[in-house]
């Protein structure tokens, strides 16, 4: 059984028992490719990110999580969206924590490092836009990437 199961509008989803602020970071290189990881806990492709720890800002969390999961150093540029959909429940099977989604989407630029997998990422790649549709990805992550790629998009919140 995977360590993380994402549910969306699913009657079989467990009731949420926590809400933890987290970040996802979108970084595009000069070739127009998006930095993605293949998650170790469920095999889905995703933007780097994770929980905001006590004592750190969302920008600090974004920089830390990106480095930990990808090996890439980055600078946070701005906020693209805030996602709090109660229909999205994330179950962590190791402790039965069922989180309601609360994620802040940040845009960043790479400042150094090389794509390097970690304990949280099986693979790390710069992915061309025309290859995104072929990757196994939860709908919530695809929504974030689509929002980022939409011309003229404004701050998303829900």
Automatic annotation (TrEMBL):
Keywords: Hydrolase
Cofactors demanded by this protein: Mg(2+)
Highest taxon in the source lineage: Bacteria
Gene Ontology terms for molecular function: hydrolase activity
Stretches assigned to the Nudix hydrolase domain: 18-149
InterPro entries, sorted: Nudix_hydrolase (IPR020476), NUDIX_hydrolase-like_dom_sf (IPR015797), NUDIX_hydrolase_dom (IPR000086)
The protein's name: ADP-ribose pyrophosphatase YjhB (NUDIX family)
